[in-house]
Amino acid sequence: MKKDDLETPALLLDINVLQSNIRMMADYLKDKPVKLRPHAKCHKTPIIAHMQVKAGAKGIAVAKLGEAEVMANAGINDVYIANQVVQQSKLERLAALNEYSTVSVAVDNLTVIETLSKIAVKKNVNVKVIEEIDVGLNRCGVPPGKAAIDLAKKIVQLKGLIFEGVMGWEGHAAFMPDLNKRKEECHRCYKKLVETVNEMRREGIEVNTVAAGGTTSFSIAAEYPGINEINPGSYIFMSLMHRLEGVPFKHSLTVLTTVVSRPTKDRAIIDGGVQTFSTFWSYPKPKDLEGVEVKELHMEHGILKLKDPNIDLRVGDKIEFIPAYPDTTINLHDKFYIVRGENVESVWKIGARGRVD
Q: Distance (Å, rounded) from C-alpha 125 to C-alpha 117?
């Protein structure tokens, strides 16, 4: 089947670019003392996770317990939930996963940690925990320094748990457009993280993992002394929000739409609205089509503004769009259409789509 024969809207994944992005990251890390644990919250697809592991990733990260269940049940044997899991029923599910896989979790609360310890002991499993440290994002995490060290001391005393290490997400710094300013602020974050780790080690606490870094800060983190794991996710797809200096990856993800109306010379309507595209960050942008922009997104319609009324857009024409943000767009779709050039080669189910549990 040809790409233009697909019924729309359709989520397209260029397999050549996807593979190239995966290789580029793997090649970059070959001579560095840093491991890759890519974040799968963006793709939610076991086959892509397997591709990343085959290319050298130590495992994958996810954002939700439900995503971890999908990945573990698909044979991914090292999964890290980079988020807090606090409900007792969910902690029971987490411990159960560790009966046949290795699923670690971020922690920052002693009561939750103690509950998980009791559940793990009861199920006769050991659960790896990674202490989240707030390095400046002001979201989850223990403050760096004494508070983080004191919590680590308590974790290592608890049965059923393995203190694996720490993570710090520099999300507030990672999207600074200016590369030098981005590096400067990221370095401030990493300094807090690494100094805390050094003090933990002086206190006799073994710290195996020191994780940071996303798609827009992957190389900044990988080249900072003391960081030994990075967790980028969107590098395999790229998007409008990741188009920053120092980010070398290419766009592999697009949404194919059809023009369904051309009511005026300066306006065209496509069959994709907010139930096709996420509006997080911004509206999508047409791929390889100048002079056309998304003016509005309704539920099932996209309103396009044509800067030049002579642009030849007719009802039935196909337009590809680059999403502003991949994660939230992908979560609106059930499947990827895998394309190579103009040909559709396969269809991949997005296995963890909707698994926000």
A: 10
pLDDT tens, residue by residue, 256-288: 999 999 999 999 999 999 999 999 999 999 999
Q: Which of 111, 108, 110, 147 is nearest to 130 (CA)?
A: 108
Q: What is the band of 35 on the pLDDT scale with cuts at 50, 70, 90?
A: very high
Packed helices 110-123 and 88-97: angle between N→C axes, nearest 10 degrees? 50
Architecture of 15-233 per CATH?
Answer: Alpha-Beta Barrel (3.20)
pLDDT in tens, 326-335: 999 999 999 9
Ranges of CATH 3.20.20.10 domains, the chain: 15-233
Taking CB atoms within 8 Å and a gap of at least 24, the contacts of 261-269 are 261/315, 262/313, 262/314, 262/315, 265/306, 265/309, 265/310, 266/305, 266/306, 266/307, 266/309, 267/295, 267/303, 267/304, 267/305, 267/306, 268/292, 268/304, 268/306, 268/313, 269/301, 269/302, 269/303, 269/304
In whole angstroms, what is the distance from residue 294 CA to residue 317 CA? 16
User: Residue 355's pLDDT is what?
Assistant: 96
CATH domain 3-9+249-349 topology: Lyase, Ornithine Decarboxylase; Chain A, domain 1 (2.40.37)
